[in-house]
Write a structure and sequence with these properties.
Elements lengths: L11 E2 L6 E2 L7 E4 L5 H14 L7 E6 L5 E6 L4 E5 L4
Length: 88
């Protein structure tokens, strides 16, 4: 049984209640789409992760900050970076 707060391999959590995104090749991270529509946001996650060293560098969270794709990314080692993603 899965409960709130459990780690789920392959799911991204969004602010929209009841909405989980599966993003191949199944990143396991927290996703905050912020002001960006969920479909656009999900389409950028793999690109953001790859540009920032995934899968060699484990990512904990991706926060989309603006509707045009500015993001803040938190790694599992506690470090952070930010940038801007282009349209998928």
């Amino acid at each position: 049984m899965i409960r709130a707060g459990d780690f789920v391999e392959g799911a991204c959590v969004t602010q929209q209640l009841g909405t989980d995104l599966l993003v191949p090749p199944f990143l396991a991270l927290r996703l905050d789409c912020g002001p960006m529509p969920v479909d656009d946001c999900a389409g950028r996650v793999h690109q953001i992760a790859s540009v920032n060293g995934w899968p060699k560098r484990a990512i904990a969270e991706v926060h989309i900050l603006t509707a045009d794709g500015r993001y803040r990314l938190a790694f599992e080692d506690g470090s952070e970076t930010s940038g801007s993603s282009s349209a998928p």
